[in-house]
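Need tokens for this chain, all 131 residues.
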Amino acid sequence: MSAIRGKYAPVRRALGLGAAQGGTHHWWTAKLTAIALIPLGLWLVASVIHLAALDRAGVLEWLRQPAHGAGLILFLLFGFHHSAAGLQTIMEDYLPTHAQKLAGILVSTLLHLAGAAFGVYAVIVAALRVV
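Here are the structure tokens for all 131 residues:
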């Protein structure tokens, strides 16, 4: 039986079906979200520097511009997705039992979804708020 597994191992690796059956997908997700976060992060840092000189009304006016609201929402979504994927990989690699892995990934995923939903909601409410 082990000879059969060994015979097909290179094919399984090429298809991304190694021991975890999905490692390639997680790797690509982490890389693509990291690449997307580079320009979004630079934009956010430049924006925060610009916003530091504004009052509350100025910040809300800045946020009402569709490009800025959309950029902030994209940063939140990509950031939470990248964090969730990275944390899942860590839990899969280092938690000893299947039950701990499952519980950890479930709790982490729910917290990341809640954080992303709250962040997007906060941006939308702030952008639509009348000063």
